[in-house]
Structures are given as C-alpha cells and as structure tokens.
Amino acid sequence: MLNKFSSSISAILDSRAEGYSLPAGLYTREDVFQADLDVFFRKHWIYVGLECDVPEAGDATVIDIGTTSLILLRDDDDEIRVVHNVCRHRGTRLLDGGPTVISKLVCPYHQWTYELSGELIHAPHMGTDFDKSCHNLKPVHFRSIGGLIYVCLSETPPADIAHLERVMEERLAPYDIRNTRVAHQTDVIETGNWKLTMENNRECYHCAANHPELCVSFIDLDFGFDPATLSEEDRAEAEEHQRLYVKRIAAWEADGHLSSPVEQLAGHETNFRTQRLIIAGAGESQTPDATAASTKLLGTMTRKDLGDTHLWGHNAWNHFMGDHAVTAMVIPLSANRTLVRTKWLVHKDAVEGVDYDLEKLTNVWVATTDQDAELVGRSQLGVEDPAYEPGPYSRFTEGQLDDFATWYVERMRAHGY
C-alpha cells in the first residue's frame, strides 16, 4: 500500500495535463525530491562520467548521488570498475570527493585494504576464522558506451539500455571518446529543480533571446517553429533549411556517417535521443566563430564538416564534433539545487596552446551554461510562487518537453507513485 507521501505525490501526478508543464509540487516538494532520487537516479541508468576520467591504472574519481557515493576507477588490468565508496567493515567512506591516484583502496579508519578490483585483502585483527571473500567492496552495475559511463544502482537495471548501447557504440566509434582527455571541467550549481534544468536543455525556444554565443553555431530552427507566425521571407528560409537537412543527412549517411534521429522516450524505461545536427556559419564546431577549436581531430575523424552528433538522456546532454566533444552531467542536490558538471574533451595527444586554444574551446558552453543557470533560477522562483499554474507547451518548439514530462509521470507510476 502506498504511504502518505506516495499518495500525495500520486495526486499531484494525476493533476498533470497533457501538453502542459508539471504541477508546482513536482518541482518544489522535499518528498518529491526524495522520490525523484530513488526512481530516476537509483532505479534508472544515469550518465556519471567517462573512461578518460581515469586514463591510467590506479586513477580513481568519486561521484556522489544523494547519499550514495561511487568510485569510478581503472584497475591494475586496465579495466574500468565502479564500486560503492563504502568500507565493508563499518561503512566508512574510503575516498574523498574528486580525482585521485591509488595503488590500493585503504580505509582510513581501520586500514581494511582492498585491491582495485574491490577484493578485500587485509582486515587486521579479525581472527583466523574471518572470511575476507565475503566482504569485498560492492560492485555497481555499469556500462561503458562509446567511452561514456552509465551506472544503475538498482539490483535489476532496465534492460533497454541495450538499444542505447547498440545505437551509440556505432555512432561514437569515429570519435574514439575512450582515447580523449578532459581539457577543462566546470561545476555549476543551478538554483532550480533538476527537471527544470533538463527542460531548459530540451528546447531552443529561448535560444535566440538568451544565447548569442551558442547561436553562432546552433540553428534554432532545428528545434521547431510556428510557420503561421513567420514572414514570407522567414518561412521560405525555414523551408529551405528543412530541405537542406534532408539533403545533408542523406549525403552524410551515404558516406557512412549515421545521422538520422533515433529516439527512445515515452513508453520506455531508458530515455535518450540522438541525431547529427548541422552546425551554422563555418559549420565546423561550437566555438565563437564556428570553426574548429583543435587542429588535432578526434579519433579517426578526417573531416570538420560532419556537424554535431548530439545525445540526450534524462540526466545528461552531449555534443560530439570533429575536433572536440562537450559532455554535461546533471545531479540533483536538493529540491531547488542542481549540479551541472560540464567537460570539454580533446584528442588525448592534443596539446593546449599548440593544437588548441582553451578559451576558444570552452567559450560557447561556459557562457551558455551560465546563462542557463540564471534562467533555471528564474524558473524555480516562478514555480515556487503561489501564482504559478502549469502553462501550455508550444506544440511547435516544446514537443520534447511534453515528451519528457509524459515520460517522467510514466516512470513515477511504474515505481508505485
């Protein structure tokens, strides 16, 4: 039987109208926040990092999700592992937050010691009858998909991650993300609910008025438009752009570069969308002048004119271009605070100041993330206002938001709310 909080959440879910934004309580209430953590960040696959975060044996980094702490590491056999950051003795945290280099995992409390495989090898003063093999570190379900690390904290992870894996291993292969390095990272705390962060990323209705840097290379027409409100000249431009897309995708795919949209949204457990997008202007990269930021291209890429392969998930967005990639991870911190961790990836042998300029590489998404943080903060203030009531999504430009809200409600229902 549902408890009081779950029943209350269920009533709010019932009140969500198709085609409208979510009711206020789903953005503001503490019980909803805890339910979101449980459903979307423990029972579904989430993106948490990259193989290149731990490029060498002994490299490790800690990722915290609510009260759960994980260690992503590379073991002595050069294999990626993800384990819980919890000593099997009395629960002490093994590692502090952030990256580190280790030869063994040693608990700072009583010096229980684990191999990088998670195997307990030393537990002093536990007696001769103590079976160390029963107290190895707890492993976490994970998949490395094209070098992107997804984890699921549930004992029964959704099986449809297999579709994401099939689609993206092939699409990401030319970029060889496993052999990149992180050239830069930013952590931005947005003062808004995680769903507002994701909704903001799912549309470009707001782009022209708020993202001048991004709009040099991004084409807002890709995210929809109302033809009835356009001038004859603008409508002709939009129609020409649509024809160009059909032509460009056909040409890309004829050359072996998968480009057509693939979606797994409402009606599925694992939420993702991918497509190759045209880059505006010079057409090479998401930089201040839309030209490549790095002369050393990723992986086996030999062309700069292959657009932007984007990948969305329910806690991430990614852009893969010939010269660099941008990945963003979203982790809820509270009902009204969200971590957005953005990483810029370059070829592992690219040298700053020689092969790329860091300012040019990062300018667009540093500015865009800061601008989005302000917008999300304003949205949070709005949904907390007693005057807020759910508003209608534009069917032309915000269809992805309606899909996301529908998926959100479906998944909450599937887990008993």
Automatic annotation (TrEMBL):
It holds the Pfam family Rieske. Its cofactor is Fe cation. InterPro entries: Rieske_2Fe-2S (IPR017941), Rieske_2Fe-2S_sf (IPR036922), Ring_hydroxy_dOase_asu_C_dom (IPR015879), Rng_hydr_dOase-A (IPR001663). Keywords: 2Fe-2S, Iron, Iron-sulfur, Metal-binding, Oxidoreductase. Signal peptide: none annotated. Residues 46-151 form the Rieske domain. This is Rieske 2Fe-2S family protein.
